[in-house]
Amino acid sequence: MISTNEEIVLSVEHIKKKIGKRWIIDDVTFDIRAGEIFGFLGPNGAGKTTTIRMLVDLIKPTDGVIKVCGYDVNRDPERGLKYVGSIVENPEMYTYLTGFENLEHFARMQPGITKARIEEVVETVRLTERIHDKVSTYSLGMRQRLGIAQALLGRPKLLILDEPTNGLDPKGIKEMRAFIKQLASSGMAVFVSSHLLSEIQLLCDRVAIISGGKVLAVGNVNDLIAESSNYIIWDFTPRQLGLQILASNTEVMIVRNVESVLDDSVIANMNKDAVVVQMPETAVPAAVAELTSAGVSVKSVQKVTPTLEQLFLRMTEGEAIDESHSAY
Ligand SMILES: Nc1ncnc2c1ncn2[C@@H]1O[C@H](COP(=O)(O)OP(=O)(O)OP(=O)(O)O)[C@@H](O)[C@H]1O
After folding, report:
1. In the prediction, which pLDDT does 319 show?
2. Atom 2 in ligand 1: which residue has the minimum CA distance?
3. Which residue puts its alpha carbon closest to atom 29 of ligand 1?
4. 112-145 tens-digit pLDDT
5. pLDDT at 327
6. Residue 110: CB atoms within 10 Å
7. How far is the CA of 131 from the centre of ligand 1 (A)?
8. Pick the residue with more confidence: 327 or 87?
9. Whose CA is nearest to atom 13 of ligand 1?
10. Which of 16, 48, 59, 214 to mutate to test the pocket of ligand 1 (most atoms within 8 A of CB)?
11. Which residue has the least CA distance to atom 8 on ligand 1?
């Protein structure tokens, strides 16, 4: 789902938040375009909730500007929030009412929401068959979809979803993913925060990774992975000579802690003498030539692309790479 529409719906410009003496958010900048699904990732305490609360004007930034469709959300919330639908901090539902009655209740709080509009959002979230049943009989996935229906009532251009797949079973997660993609393909910008990194990798066009209130990386998921880390698994003999040659190459970093950068399934299939390095893929042919001319027989060279989860762990927990280039 590549965004073809360049219209910036949300722009977050250098926001900061100071609580007490601490800068909880320290210069966070990113934007989201129409039709794009944007993932917001960070470990516990990174500042995700604080940022989301500023996006929907529950709290104000100490510094910086948040604009939705050009309107300042925190200085002109009436206009800025007009284009925002959100599910933040578990939407309140009246479980003794039907789904439809709940939506009617929320519609009364916003001017101009007609019964036809309610029926339209019910159709969008695929709850038509059960919408006149009591919410107490709904599955968690149905309640989440009802929450999204509520968020969609005012025809938002930006949808903010805080952990939308939380608590859902695999089928529910798959349905929610398809559903979010459908909303984005209709031109909506979708902001998703989640702890489920594999889910974000499957769902999002771009992500921001935050930690300690700062953005560590922002960009296309696949580009971030490709730029940050190519792991190359070398199998050669004699091993010690090959290692010495690779370790002296300035473009190569030997990885000591293989478990932290490779999947168990990759490790299980690896020759136990294999050497894992981080290096640009383009430097591989020259390295093969150097090894071969020194009398090292290269049996195999395999590139392994890390998952978003591995990239995330490396960024937020520190490098597992031996920076000294030394051999094992
Ligand atoms: N009102 C507050 N007073 C003091 N500290 C706060 C307040 N709100 C948040 N913090 C601190 O700011 C930091 C960021 O919190 P925040 O809840 O935004 O993180 P988070 O990324 O949402 O974490 P989690 O994934 O655990 O929900 C944390 O260290 C938290 O303790």
Report:
1. 37
2. 19
3. 45
4. 899 999 999 999 888 999 999 999 999 888 888 8
5. 33
6. 11
7. 36
8. 87
9. 45
10. 48
11. 50
Q: Given pLDDT bands bounded at 50, 70 and 90, which one contains residue 228?
A: low
Task: Please state the separation of Cα 57 from the chain's center in Å.
Answer: 22
Nearest CA to ligand 1 atom 3: 19
Short-list 208, 174, 153, 181, CA closest to 41 = 208
> What is the residue with the minimal CA distance to atom 26 of ligand 1?
44
Domains of the chain in sequence order: 8-225 (3.40.50.300), 229-317 (3.30.70)
User: What residues are in contact with ligand 1 under a 6 Å CB criterion?
Assistant: 19-20, 24, 42, 44-50
C-alpha–C-alpha distance, residues 159 and 231, integer Å: 36
Residue 201 CA, ligand 1 centroid: distance in Å: 24
> What does the pLDDT read at residue 89?
65
Contacts of 161 (CB under 8 A, 6+ apart): 86, 87, 148, 180, 190, 191, 192, 193
pLDDT tens digits for range 18-60: 999 999 999 999 999 999 999 998 888 889 999 999 999 999 9
> In the prediction, which pLDDT does 158 show?
97
DSSP 31-42: EEETT-EEEEE-
Mean per-residue pLDDT for 256-278? 81
Q: Which helix (H) or strand (E) holds 184?
A: helix 170-185
C-alpha 49 – ligand 1 centre gap (Å): 7
Burial label, 241 (beta-carbon count in 10 A; 0-12, 13-18, 19+): middle
pLDDT higher at 313 or 4:
313
Mutate to test the pocket of ligand 1, among 15, 19, 24 (most ligand atoms within 8 A of CB): 24
Instruction: Tell how far the Cα of 25 is from the centroid of ligand 1, in angstroms.
Output: 9
Q: Which residues pair with 218 in a beta bridge?
A: 208
* pLDDT of amino acid 229: 60
